[in-house]
Structure formats: C-alpha cells, structure tokens
C-alpha cells in the first residue's frame, strides 16, 4: 500500500481516508461530467463521511487482494486529483483477471493524461501483480474511452447485453480486453 508510481507528467497514488477531502472535491467538480458514465449517486455520496467510508473500503479491498485504485495527480500538484484508474473484481486461481475503470477531471481531457496513466498502471498490474487479463467494459457511445483502449492495444471481444446499470439504466457494453504479453 502507499506505493507511488510516476510517469513523465503524472503521479499515481493509492489514497486512504485521510485524503477524503481531495476525493470529495474531485467528485463535486465532476458531478455533471461523470453522470452519463457512472452509477447513479445518492446525494450523500457528495459528503466527506461517504468518501471517507469509500476510501476505507478501498483500503480493505486492496488488503484482501480484490482491487487496486490509483488516483492521478500532475507532477508538482498533489493537492488536486485529475483522475483515477481502478482495477476491480480481481480474480486469482485459474482466472488472474480484473475489471478496469477510469475517469479524468473534465478540464484535463484531451491532453493524453489518461492514456499515460493507464499505460503505467497496466504495466504495474501485469509485472507486479501478475494478472493475465484486464477487461474494460465500455458503452458503445463512449468513443473517447474506446479510443484510449484502442491506443493501448485492447481488443474488442463483443457486446454484453444490459451489462451494467449506468445513470439509472441497464446499458449494453462492449468488452475490451488486454492480455499480459509475458503469458503469450
Ligand atoms: C474516458 C476519458 C478518460 C477519456 O479522456 P481523454 O482525455 O480522451 O483521454 P486521454 O487523457 O488519454 O487523452 C487522449 C486525447 O488527448 C490528445 N492528446 C493531446 N495531447 C496529447 C499528448 N501529449 N499525448 C497523448 N495524447 C494527447 C489525444 O490526441 C487524444 O485525443 P483524441 O481522442 O481526440 O485523438 C474521459 O473522457 C472521461 O473521464 N470520461 C468520463 C468517464 C468515463 O467515461 N470513463 C470510462 C468509462 S468506460
């Protein structure tokens, strides 16, 4: 826990409940931007209490080996979160797989930050956590997200009907995947 990774322009960090204010600030700033792409949020999601609890759950989930979440900062400004990359539902045994999620701050899109962070995070998941497969479900209309995945070599494995409830509605998702090159 608390291992930090750097890229040319970014710092990737795991956070804990002491960082709840930073996370709350990120979600409040991006409430409208994220609405179309994420789970419907109750009003109490936008409170310090709720974000502290979520970060505590993230730490527990990391300790159990179930998930890892990297928050993204620009180098030289570790007081403002600009995004997040998460690897959820980590399955070991004969799967060694996980589900990928990510998001940016609306004002930091179009600069290549997510691609830069994701490239590093994927490398970490393959080389340090020895995952075999990373799956990214994306709604067909989310072209920005699809472009990010294509640039990193993710492959389209087809559509899953009504896979996730996004902004209150069950939505079809394309399943994109990337395999650990060391396992080929
Ligand atoms: C999905 C999301 C992260 C994509 O953001 P993004 O800014 O397009 O992705 P990146 O940060 O990798 O930036 C890539 C863009 O920056 C451009 N760019 C500018 N400067 C660049 C640089 N120095 N290096 C690389 N790319 C650069 C690229 O050309 C590309 O633009 P294009 O797609 O129009 O060709 C963002 O739209 C988002 O947070 N959406 C809401 C949440 C969401 O949908 N999450 C995913 C659910 S599946």
Automatic annotation (TrEMBL):
- Give residue ranges for domain N-acetyltransferase: 24-181
Q: Which InterPro entries match?
A: Acyl_CoA_acyltransferase, GNAT_dom, N-acetyltransferase
Q: Which GO terms describe its cellular component?
A: cytoplasm
Question: What keywords does the record list, in alphabetical order?
Answer: Acyltransferase, Transferase
Q: Which Pfam families match?
A: Acetyltransf_3
MF terms in GO: protein-N-terminal-alanine acetyltransferase activity
Q: Does the keyword Magnesium apply?
A: no
- Acyltransferase listed as a keyword: yes
**PANTHER family this protein is in?**
[RIBOSOMAL PROTEIN US5]-ALANINE N-ACETYLTRANSFERASE (PTHR43792:SF8), GNAT FAMILY, PUTATIVE (AFU_ORTHOLOGUE AFUA_3G00765)-RELATED-RELATED (PTHR43792)
Its name, as the record gives it, is GNAT family N-acetyltransferase
Gene source species: Jeotgalibacillus salarius
Source lineage: Bacteria, Bacillati, Bacillota, Bacilli, Bacillales
